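Field guide to reading this record: the first block holds the primary sequence, the second block holds the structure written as discrete tokens, and the final block holds curator observations. Each block starts with its own label. This record concerns 6-phosphogluconolactonase, catalogued under organism Sandarakinorhabdus glacialis.

BLOCK 1 — SEQUENCE
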Amino acid sequence: MIDAEWWDYDDADELAEAVAGDAGFIIEQALEARGRAIIGLPGGETPKAALTLLAARKIEWADVTIVPTDDRLVPPTDPRSNVGMLAKLFLPKKARVVPLCAGETDPVLAGRAADERLADLEWPLDLAWLGVGADGHVASIFPGPDYDAAINGPKARRAIGVRPDPMPENMPVARVTLTKAALVSARTVTLVLTGKDKRKLVEKALKDGASSTLPIGRLLADLEMDIDIHWCE
Ligand SMILES: O=C(O)[C@H](O)[C@@H](O)[C@H](O)[C@H](O)COP(=O)(O)O
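BLOCK 2 — STRUCTURE
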């Protein structure tokens, strides 16, 4: 079992500063070691402030490839689009932003196309920065017909289409997600969350390990290196 180190902050600003600093350091280490960096960045609300601070850092962004950890099957101009949010922040910095969805409407086809697109990238990720949903989903690994393939699929599979069942009420759309294998193979995995409820959920997931019924629990159980968990109330 890996070690999870909790980093607690007094407020969201302090959390954002710390996470942006950590991510920036990991990217700079990768650039120094290999002359390039490939990072998986999350969607949702929690990471927005930290991502904005990260984009403002003085980094050789032209040598950085950014992949959303997951995305909703919506056009990049849609406010729900994760790649749309990341492109706004990082394309002006000359980073390469690789979409998981390219206009497909069928999640199974979108997942296959994303997997082919990612096959050309030099894996593993240097950083997989993750959030967690109030229901315990991570990236867009949700209960439903694609859950087993996302959690237990072949290690070579990097992305897969997801038809959540039940559909999340706040965001009832199909998705494409990086698989658990693609996420846990990252050189560094970091988890960023806020609020007491999510903290309790992650602490239980860590305790339950591989027997966790939650996607986040199954992912944490398969990590092969320690993880930093950044949290504020
Ligand atoms: O596409 C997404 O929704 C995210 O990648 C997702 O996995 C996110 O991390 C959680 O849903 C938490 O979202 P919040 O940070 O907004 O609570």
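BLOCK 3 — OBSERVATIONS
Residues 42-46, 69-70, 82, 131-133, 137-140 surround 6-phosphogluconic acid (CB under 6 Å).
Residues 112 and 160 are 6 Å apart (CA to CA).
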